[in-house]
Give the backbone structure.
Amino acid sequence: MTTSSQSAALTNTTQQNSNKTLTHKLLLVNGVNLNLLGKREPDIYGHTTLADIEKALIERAAAHGIELICSQSNHEGKLVDDIQHYGLLAEASAQVDAIIINPAAFTHTSVAIRDALLATQKPFIEVHLSNVHARESFREHSYLCDVAVGVICGLGQLGYHMALDYWLTHTYAITLNK
């Protein structure tokens, strides 16, 4: 079921993409502790490293003529800086068309990241490796989900691929082989 804010985000995405020249750049933002993927709690997060995930996504995007810019930090301000830079402050040709973000623990705490995403007016998809709704109750609250185009959780690294495929098909009108 789509909420009214998600419907507004989808409409906004369509309007933005039809009203501007696309740069063919996407931003992948990963938050706190995701640099430990493959080592930290593999029973929850798996054995694949963030570098492995980024490499696969960069290659898939490049195969379709899209540049994927990757950012990871354990520092909230660094993530805010990257979102602002690639979403709003860079020259128009260096700005991204859309964002994939796994804010990790910042999901539940960061109004600053939410505000940075909103300031860019770039559509974004929130991704989580684990099913946050099947874990501790505090993980069920997201400061981002109501303004995201979509949220993918619990599907491991496949969630990132699904988010990328969404942007490839919906932003760039690329037909993907099934």
Q: What stands out?
A: The radius of gyration is 15 Å. The beta strands are 25-30, 67-72, 98-102, 124-128, 150-153.
